Every structure is written in structure tokens, then in C-alpha cells.
Amino acid sequence: MKFELGRCLLQERLDEHGVTREELSRSLQYKPERLIDYMENKRIMPLKVAISIADTIGCPISELYELQDVR
């Protein structure tokens, strides 16, 4: 099955897990501005970044974006 990425759900996942942007950026040593770019859909997370973020906040990588079924 083929999917396209929809809206970034990072802010929702952070809220669910009680993690702030600042905490995430500090723990992964990413600039907060870069995380904001992902959240505002200005950039798509590279796979390595998505894996690191999902692992750090404790969610499946597939829950970082809305996935839209493409047929």
C-alpha cells in the first residue's frame, strides 16, 4: 500500500507524552527552529530524525504524520 504524508503530528505527540519542544530539542541537540519547521509543515523530517524523535518521546514513527492512502 502506498501512502503520502499529510500534516505533521509532532506537537500532538509531544502534548500526549508531556514533552515540550524545548526539552526535545535539548535532548536531541536539534535547533528548536528546525522542530518548528517540521510542526508547521515547512520541512519533512528525514527518516533518521523521525526515528530519533519517535524513540525519544516513545511513540511509533508512523504516528508523527497523518498518513494518506494513495490508490
From TrEMBL:
InterPro entries: Cro/C1-type_HTH, Lambda_DNA-bd_dom_sf. Residues 10-64 form the HTH cro/C1-type domain. One of its GO terms (molecular function) is DNA binding. It comes from Paenibacillus roseopurpureus. PROSITE patterns: HTH_CROC1. Pfam families: HTH_3. This is Helix-turn-helix transcriptional regulator.
